[in-house]
Amino acid sequence: MHSYSSNGEGMISLVDINSLVKLRLDAMVAIGVKGGQVTEIYAALPVRDEKGDLGKSVVYGPFGKMTEE
Question: So which domain of life are we looking at (predicted)?
């Protein structure tokens, strides 16, 4: 886990995506926090190409803060 943004943004960076692929991680999740509250969440998953190699990823989000019902 690491932090690099002080404005509450949780967008996954190109460095995060490259690390996901090169380190062969299962997923990368970025959580934006501001004032101690979650502002947004992104998740990236590796994608295999037609040869079966992991070279790209797909990013999902942003997901907002869950509200209680």
Answer: Bacteria
Task: Give this prediction's pTM.
Answer: 0.79
Can you list the pairs that 36-39 forms with residues at least 24 positions away whose Cβ atoms lie under 8 Å?
A: 37/65, 38/65, 39/8, 39/9, 39/10, 39/64, 39/65
What does the domain layout of the chain look like in residue ranges? 14-63
Q: What is the pLDDT of residue 66?
A: 60
More confident residue, 7 or 68: 7
Flag whether pLDDT at 3 surpasses 80: no
Torsion from C-alpha of 32, 5, 42, 27, nearest 10 degrees: -120
